[in-house]
Write a structure and sequence with these properties.
two-stranded antiparallel ribbon; RT_dom; Reverse transcriptase domain-containing protein
Length: 149
Amino acid sequence: MDVNSLYTSIRHQDGIESVMSFLSQNTGLNNHQLKFCKDLLTLILTRNFFLFEDQFYIQKKGTAMGSNVAPPYANIFMGQFKITYVYPHPSFMSHMTFSSFGLGMRRPSSLFYNDLNSCVPGLTFSINHDFKSMHFLDTMVIIKDDRNI
């Protein structure tokens, strides 16, 4: 499974809550420092302007591609998403397998897939049912008949 258009799909409030939860649980920041981080992140996310065909727009959802905050923001959000929705799902352990490339489905479950697609508005996943190949970042990984990659 893969998330579609992650950077532009995260609602600001959901992303900010995920980052704040992560920071409060995994750092020694005090309340004033946490509030400062939240204020800065809110400013970065909600004041992102871009130019398209000679007109300025404000990005109302997601984070800008190329922004320094985008990779850790998206990673923290997806980490919180997994903790909240994926790992507790009743089908998770019976349908998942772990590999060096991450998580894969042993037996694709439409229930699991549909449930994940309905957890957060705007966040959708795609699923690859091919057991001989998969996309990994910008690479197509293929398992040959001789079991070599």
